[in-house]
Amino acid sequence: MAAPSATAFKNARLLDPASGLDETGDLIMRDGLITAFGPKLPKNAAAGCKDVIDCSGLCLAPGLVDMRVQLRDPGEEHKETIASASEAAAAGGVTAMVCLPNTNPVIDDVAVIEFVARRAREVRGVKVFAYGALTRDLGGTELTEMGLLAQTGALAFTDGIHTVANALVMRRALSYASTFGLLIIQHPEEPSLSKGGDMNEGEVATRLGLAGIPDCAEVMMIERDLRLVELTGGRYHAAHVSTADGIEAIRGAKSRGLSVTCDTAPPYFALNEMEVGDYRTFAKLSPPLRSEEDRKAVVAGLADGTIDAIASDHAPHDQDSKRVPFTQAEAGGVGLETLLPVSLELHHNGHMPLLDILARLTCGPADILGLPLGRLEVGAPADLVVFDLDRPWTVDPDVFRSKSKNSPFDERPVQGRAVRTFVGGRTLFSLADGG
Amino acid sequence: MSENSGPSNITFPHRHLLGIEGLSPDEITLLLDLSETYVEQNRKADKKKTALRGRTLINLFFETSTRTRTSFELAGKRLGGDVINMSVAASSIKKGETLLDTAITLNAMHPDVLVVRHPDSGAVKLLAEKVNCSVINGGDGSHEHPTQALLDALTIRRRLGRLSQLTVAICGDVLHSRVARSNIHLLNIMGAQVRVVAPPTLLPAQIERLGVEVFHDMRDGLRGCDIVMMLRLQTERMKGSFVPSIREYFHFFGLDYDKLTVAKPDALIMHPGPMNRGVEIDSELADDVGRSVIREQVEIGVAVRMACLETLASKRTAAEAY
Question: Is the pTM of this model over 0.90?
């Protein structure tokens, strides 16, 4: 599909969190780039535009940058592929996503990074980036060739869904990565406390007879890592923070001026441990859904900027991984198609200004990763989402583009939806096409 | 309903018996009253009844069990049913057959009642959602073991005449115990005061929210109580992981005559079995017929399972007639 030469978006609510723009206006895109936008474009700005899209009543914002996605490709293509994840992303307004290294083979080698990049080019969907494994085969002991992997395109280094448990390995990783200014991303959970755990420790777990994971498992690992950040001067990012204490530790580190950031995912500000209900495996996540107090602390952390980004934490699983007893079920939920609407709940519920929410979804993660994405800029690639802020709908995983249907938001009534998604000026999703 | 249904007008509204949590006092009383009639029946020479004639009961055990399986088998046979025991050892699971595959296989055999034991909490409920017959939870992970709680309740009621206002101390490995959870629910529903006594390593988080008083000292916990329920501590948990040693555990948390002196003079001792003599209970005390009702629990277990089987099977008859 050839990129349309020129398109004009008229009468849109232009939202650019990076610059604070929130005004009704137009945006012109030519040859895949943003060429002009603003509330008062000259009359002739749209001259020569073949397509004119009337965006009255709709929002136009930078496409979402999702910094935490499990792709399953290569290795588990029956759960998800780069192609299916890309379609799901576009349907959710996501124009760039970063995959964890827990593919098979693991992304701990230059060849695998190149493989993912090639597949992504073939798919020609949303932008796909990858993290490199921090340790070989995610084994937690030997460092990968971080410098070479970074040159090939690895955006940052992480052991994905595994904690880097060994303090010495983490020390050396932070220290070595600082040579190249590379970012280390941690799944912050003390593994000796979380091992064998099914859900958050507390009354619900006790009633259900499920093994609990104490909430302090998170803050213990974060606090250990923060000491190592102080020791090494490395750059550190805590993924999917879920507890009040964990967020408070990050807040303190930021105020001390450490180079520390963190993200969370929609389940942790929209759901709590009660979702497990009667052994609902779709509510089995890692870290586990926490208490209501923790959920409120995540909302507060997003609102005050302690939490820099919201990621989908997309974790596709097939039925065989979820339709089993709770203890045996895999942890994680799909999230690409619910990232935007569930995040917009923060606006509809009055917890955060709309621009702040969008910042956590666009320029926030882009800045952490050093990507020139997630903002409206003249001359930048037209990675855009047009969304209806108020449109009510009900989450129905059966119509998800994702190959896997394991959504913790199954049947949730939500408000707000991507209507069209563009990457480099090309339409990758249009709600009218069947949504 | 059969002639054994008793004077109550209450009916049992549930298709399955998956747990005690959620049952009403009337429903529990209904099951206990019906069980009571079978206790007497089982002591006669002719024990055979016909409530399950033509019906198939499958005992599906994913975890080894002698006592519970035998108890259900005997209960099914005494009611005239055809009883089949299926032990789904780890082998089947290793072959890749899932719980839901098993459900499909079972549906094709048209059982009327399934008794299921599974090492994972919630697994019996998952299976119950996928089969066409009634399901009795024979123990799922650390979640519930409802027939054990019912038989414990009937044992207490027969000895002391009531459940309400009694003080019951549940001692030992509450963390891993489905028996403890079912008993806590049942005793609370029926108006008893429930205590748990154990070191904190053997208590689940926020157990007090289930309506129990928590003690870490046996003498404090047993003081003035009517019933002492001991729980089994599994061997792999007593060697340094949850408690330092058998010797230390028995010293502080094992039930013996000395610790028992603070309980009521006629306090009864119960144990769901199988016992670890010299670990959680003194051997001589376990055999003391004046204090221990452990053997009686086993006898009453058969009667309670007959009542549960009949109650669920009769619902099926009603459904078909409808």
Answer: yes
